[in-house]
Model the fold of this input.
Amino acid sequence: MWSRIGKLIKKLFSGKRSKVAFQQVFEQFQTLLQNHQDAMELIADLGEKSGGDYIFDRKYLVDSVSELQELLLRMVKGLNLISSERYYELYSTLDRVFFPIEMELRGRLALSNAPYVISLTEMPLDTPELTGGKANALGEIIHKLGIPAPSGFVITNRAYNRFVEYNDLEERIHSWLELWMSGKETLEKSSGQIRYGILAGIVPQDISRQIRDNTKTDNEFWAIRSSAYGEDGDLSFAGLHESVLNAPASQIPDAYKQVLASLYSTEALTYRRQMGMIGEEAAMAVLCQEMIDSRASGVIQTLSLESSQPNCLAIYAAFGLGRTVVEGRDSSDRYIVERAYPHKIVFKRIAKKESFVRAASRGGEEEAILPEDIRSKSSISEGIVNSLAKWAMALERYFKRPQEIEWAIDSADQIWILQCRRLAISPEQAETDGNIPDRFSSHPILIENRGVVAHAGVGSGRVYIVNNHADMAVFPEGSVLVTKYTAPWLAQIVPRATAIVAEKGSVAGHLATIAREFRVPALLGIDNATEILQNGMEITLDTHHRTVYSGKVDELINFERVQSMVFEESPEFRLLRRLLKRIASLHLIDPYASDFTPDNCVSVHDMIRFIHEKSVQELMEIPGSLARFKEAKVWQLESDVPLDLRILDLGGGIDPELCGNKVEIEQVRSLPLRALWEGVSHPDSWSTRPVEIDFKGLMSSLTRNWDAAGGGVANAGFNLAVVNGLYMNLHLRLGYHFNLIDATMHEQAQRNHIYFRFVGGVTDLTRRSRRAQVLSQILSNYHFNVLIKGDLVIARLVDLPKEEIESHLKVIGALIGFSRQLDIQLRSDQDVDQFVEQFLNRYGSLTKSVPAGGEDEQVKDYGLGR
Amino acid sequence: MNKLKIMVLDDEPIVCKRLKPALEKQGYEVDTFTQSSDAMEQIKNVEYDVIITDLKMKGIDGMQLLTEAKQRSPKTEVIVITGFATMETAKESFHKGVFDFIAKPFKLSEIQEVVSRAEAKIRGE
Done:
């Protein structure tokens, strides 16, 4: 629809660059900044909701998306207004980007455009409606946890629908089910008739061709398994559906039909009838994976179901393929291992094994006799037992409930995870009667009702305080990560943690995003966490009351285990994550790259970034094209400060009595410019002492091709402030830095903002990045929201009272002088801290009313994610 | 002391699925409904201490249920959960008899705090 509006607008302006009133451009720019801020906050809110601390409904998602769409439409209009309709194609980008988001919300996307066959490495996550529960879980294991699973592909639910339609089976299935349900036919007859229909069906060419495309690998034999929707999720269809092991590629279509037919086996039908699901439309995705030539294989239960072994997991193992273990555990080796790191083996029983199942050379399986000398030997080493335990616990941490995991090891002793599903536990087995008190009086409470929840849940383990990279290397699996920081480098250990307690951090910050990505319960902003929680202490975090208990609270952990719903796995949270992928992910990184175009906008975030960059660029061109605005009167500021500043008054910014073209700061009426200038003209800001340039810095400043990387600022011969009484838009080009500051100082706090953007420099990227660090740390100290990308620094402040804006503008003024040649002096990372400190000491007096403090929690991540 | 009996009614299953364990963990007995007609039947047989209900639903809406519940058992405390947009109208149209309003989306801790206050009132603390 927007594209039509766009075309209409284009028609109205008939392709000619119209003259937009100068004032209007700046009004639009302010509105754009406001819309940008609102849109980013909306996205941050959606990200926060995915952490599970909120209860939201679908309506919230629908409302948020439509609000976002409205904001984006306004931004597209705004950019087109200030650029004389140069970006009208963004209207169709808007349509294209929001179309799949709307389809997701209507629940139509999963099947309508989906492929029949998709490889495990390319499959979308959070779409069990398309790929089935088993394949979806495997996808997460591969993509998120990086645990090895055999490669392969999924024949999707859409292929099932196609198969049924192609073979006219829908009516047949329906009528035989009717006959059985009404008691007119036996279960066996109905089941047999339906299965016969499926087995006699033809796999349509479009499906079989895609299967062939996906089997063009070196691999000869395949394992074909069911991946029904709901399977491995809330419902356990374990063992009800068929698997075909060790099938040659040519037999996959037949095996596929065999697995599909098992959807209507007598056992599967009986089960679905018991669960009240027979009326629902059934469908089945099928998983095809490269066959692992297993030397040994087996099953892990991450919670031993024998009450004599609390806090242990059980590993069953046997030689050869897994069927031996799956079908009977008496003849397999059994290890009982502690769930806690370092996973001590508390019991082992090596069975006497007579035979084993192996892959037959022409496909299929065969049973063989074990050589006498290994019959009483253990099928796996203790080293393997240890690795299995470690991975099993990682899987349980991620999937939130005890798991049953099938695994195999190949001849090179490489471990593979074949499948992973929820282990069914009864309340008795979990030792809970479902009747738990609100507070656990026997456990002292260490922290209560404090901090913010980044990701909801319960996690228990020993405290491990991480202060630096060295601590990370020795972080024990399954510990509670306690840290002063929220730094991005913590990302590496988050998947190994059972819970996180951090002194700093906000729900929109980087650590919060990572905690959600890996589903680790996280409580942030507990300012003395590293004092309360000591290394090695066993604790339990429950985000429910933002509580940390001393010790392991078994009642709480057992209560969680038997809850049927894992919020992360619920359809609503899956939908939210799918939406976030299309909204919050960022693909357009470099505004100077050739692919920085509307066509390459994939997500809403990309569009926001594109519009923002282009609107800033439009403003950047204004000083160079001032001549076009003949009506505009430009003043020159008289000052001792070596900064040639011209002022363009939109009205009320300059003393109306003044004549000529020169103005002194006392005659400037624009409040933001006066405040800023106070900082700029601070005696310490403009040291005329020549900067000592080292050779590397000099060479770099001489050779850098500024135009290529700087983007259209070279034509600006002077610095320009566009002002009115309450507003200032300042373009500065100092040396090779380009600085844009946009600010309002209104009586109403909610109309106020400061926007600060700094880019470029003389020296190499490392030094420029250091400068970005210095600016970011200083600005964060003054409570700006700071975003850094390479050497680009963007800082914002909104909704502050006039007086606060004034103090902050003084700080910015001082920073302009201070940062002039900062990067040349930044020779090492140590210099960064030194310069930050120097600034804070030197300009403390400027900013008495500005509360300094805070660190990286102000740095927003905006859910950049993957 | 007897456990507080709570009914949760919201036609979006996720609200029920998440509130039930959270409130049970706090020591309450919880029944959940996604169909207002079922909930209506239920209050004819069971007296709840607290009813947490959405407003806009297909068929019988939250308002009707609230009226019926209050008529049958004036002691029952009703907590209304509603979308942010409809909050003000909700507050205006019937503040009478409603213990409190909560706008969706809400934090688990927010509803727990309101239920705790309702409990204190019921137990006469």
In short: The mean pLDDT of chain B is 87. Residues 5-122 of chain B form a domain with the Rossmann fold fold (CATH 3.40.50.2300).
